[in-house]
Amino acid sequence: MILKVMENTLPGTVFPLKNAQDLDVGINNVQNYTIYPNIHFHVLTRNGSEGRRYPALVLDKALDREEQPELRLTLVAIDGGAPPKSGTALVLIDVLDINDNAPEFVQPLYRAQILESSSLGSHVVTVSARDLDVGINGEVFYSFFYGDEEITRTFALNELTGEITIIRKLDFEKIVSYEVDIKASDGAGLSGKCTVIIQVVDINDNTPELTVASLTSSIPENSPETTIALFSVQDPDSGENGRMVCSIQEGIPFTLKPSVENFYKLVTEGPLDRENQAEYNVTITVTDMGTPRLKTQHNITVLVSDVNDNAPAFTQTSYTLFIQENNSPALHFGSVSATDRDAGANAQVTYSLLPPQDPNLPLDSLVSINADNGHLFALRALDFEALQAFEFRVGATDRGAPALSSQALVRVQVLDANDNAPFVLYPLQNGSAPCTELVPRAAEPGYLVSKVVAVDADSGQNAWLSYQLLKATEPGLFGVWAHNGEVRTARPLSERDAAKHRLLLLVRDNGEPPLSASVTLHVLLVDGFSQPYLPLPEAAAEAAPADPLTVYLMIALASVSSLFLFSVLAFIAVRLCRRSRAGWGGGGSVPEGHFPGHLVDVGGMGTLSQSYQYEVCLNGSSGTTSEFKFLKSVASNHLGSTNGVEENSNSVNGFGFN
User: Residues of the chain whose pLDDT is less than 50?
Assistant: First the structure.
């Protein structure tokens, strides 16, 4: 049996049931009805008109469909026989629903998080409400509890499923969280309410911001620790995304110091040097700690202004300049240069000549300097023979305040020009009686006749002298050595050779163009002299000390004068010998002995490389022979071997006079 009962039926309500059929009669027929389980109902047995008994259910306790939508009861019919018999029937009670339950959310408070970078339509959360009723009474519809414009513009709510999605971009920096009230309603008008807290999760989508409060773009060099800039930093993000770190690049003399909250100072670490670096580009980097890390960079240009802290510096501590003698006045012969590492007026250099250390040096009449560029000019023509070198100091001064200066030494070397012709010291060419050299006819080839002594006031290559025989009375009889001026016999003498010879010699220097001088040498061939006394070769004369040219000239002149005197004496002796061939008859006598005369090499001029000696011996006794000892070269061993000429002490025969 099926029995439909409204869940709001009041207790005591009677529900008639069908009766049981028993074929027996009387006491053996159905006597009673029971039902079980009997929590909500009990059975009431009623007697019919025909003696039949009819069961009826009586509601003892109100029904609740939400608790038990149906009841299954067993109805038992018992007869009165002995033994009693029974029969059963199933009673299905279908509890009919009424709208007695409002929708109820699973949880009254929902919490959800969503990234602020979520795309439109992203799921936020789904709310859920239940209604214990069925049918239209159990259908739930969702809606926002109140129509807040910000909520409805940002989120969408599915009225059937309760899903909340975003319909507008979220921004954590504008709204951190949303509180949304949701209503769930059934078809009959009952409703429930819940609250949804939507937390917007911050992402690192904002770069740090840097704001400069004050800035000093130029500072003087050598300044102590100086504040260049004061700036603040901020990041709208939160947490690690909003935590920032400030830094600058390495290798620059600056540092960052924190000030008040989120404020920093850019300061110098110490004095700056403009000469090392005049400009700095400082890059301030602000980095947050989010993922991924975002950063902001700000460039600051710092100019270092100049202070006059550097004196001018010459490119060289000393300069060596060369100028050719006989220069034209106002000749530019060199320059000095100084630089100043400072800038502007501090780097403008002015040049000047400083007073010379030698008070006798007329510097103002020799040299001038261009104050702007350091060019040096010779004010007059210089003479190497008068002034070979001089030195002075130049100064370089900047225009800073106070002015700084430095000095450099300038050495000027006057270069020799070939402006002096060779000067012949011997034989003398003074217009007096010519000098005659005596040569015995028995002289062998290579016999030293004489030596041309010459000097050149120039120096170096311009003073290198060479000798040449230009003209001779009898060509081929005499020759001159090109490098030392020695005139020697070139072949044996014979009786056919003329007694008198005139030799024209040329002395030439090695300059460009070469200059020259000529000298005439007279040679007289004689015979009848006794065997000359030729001393053994002696060591070369010790070289004269390197004295000035004037001393050399005096020594050479004295030597030549001595040689000339000895030559005159020898000539007189020969003439006297010829007049008195039969011998000397009680005439005056010349003391026996020799008169040495030495010519020494003059100061490296290359004009005299050997020493020479004349010896004259006259014997006044009758019947004996007088001796004249001719010119003899006393050469050093090595020089003799070099020239390849052997000096034979017996090369000249003696001649007797009566």
Answer: 530-547, 582-658
